[in-house]
Hints:
Elements: H1 2-8, H2 12-51, H3 66-76
Transmembrane segments: 29-48, 55-77
Keywords: Membrane, Transmembrane, Transmembrane helix
Amino acid sequence: MPLLALLLLQSQADIQRAQAMLPAVFTGMFLFAIIGIALVIIPTWFVCKKAGFSPWLSLLVIVPMGGLVLLYVLAFAEWKVVPTAQTAYIPPAPPAYPPQA
């Protein structure tokens, strides 16, 4: 952004060049924001789904302070998930040793 400010403070030709760059800058910022939002929404979508909540709750992350609200909901709510039966590890039987005389 400082480079853009310097361009705007110079001559008229530089102002026109800076105005020509603005669509590319805004497009880059928009793509960066979309990628950033997707990097946050996709994991929260799966967490909400695995916790038994509606995955649409992950869209709260877009709203300011909505991500914090979602974090508290997920942390303190009763999850509607049935735990799986835990299987114990059964070690294999030791090999039979030959009889000793």
